[in-house]
Amino acid sequence: MGSTFHAKKSLGQNFLEDERYVQRIIEHVGPVSGETIVEIGPGRGSITAGLVDSGATVIAIELDRDLAPMLRRAFSAAPNFTVIEADALSVDFRELMPAADGKLRLVANLPYYISTAILQRLIEFRDSFTDFTLMFQLEVVERITASPGSSERGFLTVMVEAYMESTKLFDIPPSAFRPRPKVNSAVVSLRPKPGSCPPMPEFRKLVGAAFAQKRKTILNNLKPLSGRSRELLETADIDPARRAESLTLQEWLQLFKAFADFEV
């Protein structure tokens, strides 16, 4: 199937074709019969084949209208495989959940341009999933896993950290893809955090404001959000002169509570 299809630059398509890395992803996922696995961006089906062979129910979400029918033909003999032609950003994942109170698993090879949007989408639907195995450009994975004080730490880091446990698994070189990208890629594992998490729309608003301009102090970034930002930062025991990337998750939660209590 792969030899007759040309990648589309407009969709950020780079297809993983090195079997060694395909197998490493499959081994990490460890698919088994009885599970339901959603695959976003199956491409030419290299990872899809291993998922389908496991006996798991595989639901592939493919935006490319040329690739979707090719995938249907390639896996036409597999009753446990379905393709949905859709943008993953518009899919209601709750509708894909198994009837018997089961949850979904997710595997995806995602282009850089969709990374922030799709991660926010997956966080919104985290209660529908047990785990996510995601392949991004290395820069995105470094942002997701950046520690406090790191220059890579930003809005995306804090949003993922608040709702997910993240583990970087391994890098994938450009030579493993066709066409060959100009950057390295990496695979990251995410699992929804148990217990209560801050309500997403409100938390996203606070974190987004705090990172509006990274060179500014957190106080200057938060001033448009509230005229009492200095007082609220001090209530949360955070120096107003600090920058947003220096805050730990615990400090973010303290700051969110200060803002939430003020608005009550």
Q: Can you summarize this structure?
A:
The protein is α/β, with parallel strands linked by helices and 264 residues long. It folds into two domains: 2-192, Vaccinia Virus protein VP39 (Rossmann fold), CATH 3.40.50.150; 200-263, rRNA adenine dimethylase, C-terminal domain (Helicase, Ruva Protein, domain 3), CATH 1.10.8.100. 34% of the residues lie in helices and 20% in strands.
Across the major sheet, the strand order is 4-3-2-5-6-9-7
Task: Summarize the amount of helix as a percent range.
Answer: 25-40%
Q: How much of the residues is beta strand, in percent?
A: 15-25%
Low-confidence residue ranges = none
CATH topology heading of the largest domain: Rossmann fold
User: Can you identify the CATH class of the largest domain?
Assistant: Alpha Beta
For the residues shown, what is the average pLDDT? 92
Number of domains as seen in the coordinates: 2
CATH architecture of the largest domain: 3-Layer(aba) Sandwich
Number of strands: 9
Query: Cα-atom Rg, whole angstroms?
Result: 20 Å
**How far from one another are the termini?**
58 Å
CATH superfamily of the largest domain: Vaccinia Virus protein VP39
Question: Helical segment tally?
Answer: 10
Order of helices and strands: EHEHEHEEHEHHEEEHHHH
Largest sheet: 7 strands, mixed
- The coarse overall form would be elongated
Oligomer: single chain
Q: Structural class per helix/strand content?
A: alpha/beta
